[in-house]
Structure formats: structure tokens, C-alpha cells
């Protein structure tokens, strides 16, 4: 039997006479040829790539379905657990799934109702048919979507720290704020069926008026005795810790106007009344602590009616000290104030002494901080000008004279409305006067001499009575006193009088720079956030710098709101902002 000849040996097939060794050589070459194995290996790799790619596509499809289902589950569980809705919670869930055409993927709904609390749990499952992964034995992907939501009124302490500076009177901003804040208060209290929420308010302008009862808890001095004038000049030490000690000595804010300029119109020398600007409320428009029963601190409580009335009574006036507002807001939320505030409230709130400890479980501390501007340099009276006797006398006819020592011939009393010197205080007549031009020149003015040398003067001379500094500031502007009683008698020319005026103003009052105020604010905000206090910041049509300070103070970018006035076509109006914050506070917590 002849051997089988491969197709590669056509010559051998037709010429058996060729030598067998030629065919053997062809056979050996055939055995060494590996090109066929590479094709097989490549086909195997392609098949594996198709299977892996198919699995990836199927997994991506399944995950997209799962994400869609999870979003639906989250929305449905939040809506069903809402204590404000009166529908059956399970019916709410089923309605959500029906509308999404996914009811067949809902497996279980569990509802647990307790007093002032509702918990809803949802189990859903999506099944996505496989395509190429069938090649490896996987016919479908089954992926679950789970969620549990609980709504309950926890122990909340909320402080509204609101700007009521003069600029809030522009463009109806204050009225818009009142409406929004009142809606906020109603929304929060409507969700509180167990009395677990307390809300307080700190209105601020250039200062914070504490109200008499709160003011009297602190170690204050130099109080001027002006009704409804209960502000405190906070020292730097008050910003160094969240707990403001009631033992820290702090001066009361004087009743004075250091902002308004001296009146230089006709008759101003003769009539100091030109320099006693009064508002409709009967006090200086630019007083640092307007003495009024509006704009006062309301300590946190559960009294909705009192809070709504206090908001309605807010009045726009004064400068802007956001740092002071935040400082007193933290004082009303700090646990160190618990004993004092419980006493001021006439007892604990729902059996609890508040403020609660920072680490209290199921409790929250929230500050809503709003401004429409930025810091304005604080001004406060220096020691020696806050209280005590001054060298200034008031005559029975309403005119003033001031004692200055070291004048030749004993003519030590300057009379501004007469523009001359006298041997005695002005008493409604002019005994012993001499013309100003005859006063010896060449003296250097000393801004401190009136307090250093003013002691020992008689309390009264004839029909003139010596005045305390507090009496002076209640009747005259600070700049008027510096100009009429110091710059004019000693200055030579307008430049000389201006230099003396500046020196005297610096002797009477000091200023806190806006940089220092910014730093004080941010230090407080950082300390508060470190203790878990949530800070919502609202820039209400504020300056760029002011908005930046509020943004930095807020707990997160999502806690910051740039608000516009009601009816504005651009941005989010103040009403919507307060509603969103109330909704955020009342929002449900996803626990699974």
C-alpha cells in the first residue's frame, strides 16, 4: 500500500519516480510551520474580549438602573416619613413607584409611628436581563435599593443674629426681613410638637442692646443711667473664648454721638441745641447704643408670640458690628450660660436647662447670621471720659463754659458762644471777661489736661453747675465739644484748629479697625464650628467684602446664601432663603 501524500507534494503525486527524500524534506518543513497556531490564539483572545466587554456593558446598564431606583427610593422615603403630610406613608411610597412605572420593583415598605416621630424603610430590587454575559452563565443582574428615613423633632437651639443697621431701612429691606424671619419662626415651631425647640434673637447694629435683665447679669461699670441703653463695650478678651465670663469687668457703652460733625452754621456758637440731633424716638440718630425698647436681645425660649412681636418691632438705625452680634449670639447658645438663661426664662424648657452641652446627643445648635453690609469701625469712649466730673459748666440759660488751667491772669474759663475768656464759669452774664485776642499765645495744647487738672473745681458757681461727662454726652455731640471747647480757644488758623480737634477726638474716643473686627468675627466662627454649631450665613444685598466675611463664617458653601429683596428678578429673595434654611433644619435624615 502506497503512503498518503500531503497536498503540499503535488510533484510526488504525479511523479512517484522522484526521490522519496524530496518528499521527506517537504514533510519536515510542514511540521515546522506555526502560522496556524497564532490564528487560533488570536481567535481565543477576541472571544475573551467580547465576553469581558459584554459583562462590562451589562454591569453598567444594571448600575444605571440601580441608581435610578435608588434616587426614587430616597425621594419616596423622605416624602413618606414627613410628619407634616397626612396621607398614609405606604400609599405615598407606592404612588411614587407607580408614577415612575417601577411598582413591580418595590418589594417591601415598613412604617413605624411613635409620638412625634415616624420611621419609614423601603426595600426595592431591580432586575436587568443580561446580554453577552449569558455566554458565561449569567442570565440577569439583580441589584437592591434600600433606604430608611426618620423624622423627629430633636432638641434644637436656634439663634437669629440679624443686622438692623441704618442701611436696612433702604429699599424696604427691613420689612422684607421681618416677613421672612416670621415665616421662618412659624415653620420651625409648627414642626415642634413636643416643645423641644428654643429660638432667640440678637439684633445688632453698631452695638448689641442686651435689655436690662440680661445686661444686669454682667460685671459692668460706668453705666450712664439712660433708660433702655444697655450695651457693653466688649474687650478683646471677650472674643478669646466662647464662654463669656460674667465676672469679666466690662464698661457699659456710653450714650454719645461721636460720628456726627460739629455744627458750624450761623448761630451754632450761640445755641448748642443745634448740636443735639434727635430722632423721632428722642435720642441721637448716631448714638452707638440707641436707647430703645426695640432691637433688644431676646433670650432663647419657646414663646412664639413674643418672638414674632420682637421681630415686628425691629427698627433700622446705626452702624454695623457683625462681630458683636455673633459674640452675643454665641453667648446665648454656649452651655456656660445655662444657669443664667434658665433663670431669665423663669425655669427650664420642657424640663431641660438650656443651652444644652455641645456634645448632647440628638441635639443641635444653629445660628442664622445675616447682614446687609460690612464692618464699620467701632468707636468707644476712653477712660476718663466715660463718667465722672468734667471741667464743663452749664449755665441756667443753657450755655456752656469750660475750665482750662494755666491761663495768665486767671482767665481760665472759655465761653464758646461769646468767643472769649472769663475768670468764672458763664452764668448768664459776662463778669470779668476779656477778648480772646488778648490771650497769651505760644501755648501748646495738651489733650489730657482737662481730666488731669479739672479735679477740685467747685460743683456750682452762681447759676452755673459743673457737668458729669455722661451729662455732657447726652446733650452734646463729641465732635462739637472737641471743636468748640478745645480747637477754637487754642487753635491758630484753620490748620492749627484741625490739629487740636483731631488730638482731642483721639483723647476722647478710640476706634477698633475693621480688620480687627473681621478677625474677631472669624475667630468666633471657627471656635463655634469646632464645637459642632451649624452657622447659616446670609448676605442680604451686602457689599462684596461683607459677603465674603459671611461666606467664610458659614459652616459650608451650602450654608451660605446671597439674598435679594422681595420680588427681585435676579437671585434668591430673602423669603426663599429663610424658607430654605427652615426646610434644611426640618429636613429628614437618611440613616441607611
TrEMBL record:
InterPro entries: Tad_N, VWF_A, vWFA_dom_sf. Residues 428-459 are annotated as: Disordered. Residues 157-209 form the VWFA domain. CDD domains: vWFA. The keyword Lyase does not apply. Residues 433-452 have a biased composition (Basic and acidic residues). The keyword Transmembrane helix applies. This is VWFA domain-containing protein.
